[in-house]
Amino acid sequence: LAGMDCPPNPESVTQRKKFLFIVLFLFAPSVLAGGRLPNGIRAEISGVFPDVSPCVISNNIADVSFIYQQYKDFRQDIEYLYNQIIERLKNKGLIK
Q1: In a domain, 22, yes or no
Q2: Which of 13, 16, 34, 65 has the smallest C-beta neighbourhood within 10 Å, fewest atoms?
């Protein structure tokens, strides 16, 4: 995010939701379609955000699919971040 023309506040709720969406998309995509969150993922995610309770993480997870569908800017940011992650993994030879 720091490389963007106008970098956002990395500690904002919106950035946390973008992070959650990408993590869920990569590790538990069924959650984005209303599925159950696999055991342990919420605790691991809440460990990334030390001042955020697991309950807040659950509430944010409930919002992210709706926000992705409804807000073009959010969707574009997710696509940009996801593509950056994939490109970096390709450069490191971790994926083809």
Answers
A1: yes
A2: 34
Q: Please answer whether residues 15 and 9 qualify as being in contact, where contact means their C-beta atoms are separated by less than 8 angstroms.
A: yes
Tokens at 78, concatenated:
């997710």
Residue 3 has a pLDDT of 65
Tokens of 65: 């699919």
In a domain, 34, yes or no: yes
pTM over 0.90: no
Q: Does 4 reside within a domain?
A: no
C-alpha of 83 from chain center: 13
Q: Total domain count for the chain?
A: 1
Residue spans of the chain under pLDDT 50: none
E strand map for 1-96: none
- pLDDT of 9 reads 65
**Which residues, other chains included, contact 84 with Cβ-Cβ below 8 Å and sequence gap of 6+?**
none
Tell me whether residue 5 is in a domain. Answer: no
